[in-house]
Amino acid sequence: MVLPLCHGGYEMPEVLGFWRMAGEYDYLMRVQVADMKRYDEFYKRLVNSVPGLSDVTSSFAMEQIKYTTSLPIE
């Protein structure tokens, strides 16, 4: 069964990654926006577009220490 959240996540360009999780949270979205104002706009669109969505937890990176997409393949 594909939940409405899945369709909403696919259609939002701010969503860079989207995973169904095991554990405390059901889904994890990696979202990139320019600032907190844009995040608030994104959040409101997400909550208003997904029927039954009632609990959203957000965390924010304070500083990027390292980011890479390369794999250590020899």
UniProtKB/TrEMBL annotation:
SUPFAM superfamilies: Dimeric alpha+beta barrel (SSF54909). Gene3D superfamilies: 3.30.70.920. Residues 11-64 form the Transcription regulator AsnC/Lrp ligand binding domain. The keyword DNA-binding applies. InterPro entries: Dimeric_a/b-barrel (IPR011008), Tscrpt_reg_AsnC/Lrp_C (IPR019887). It comes from the Bacteria. Keywords: DNA-binding. GO terms for molecular function: DNA binding. The keyword Cell cycle does not apply. This is DNA-binding transcriptional regulator (Lrp-like). It comes from Escherichia coli.
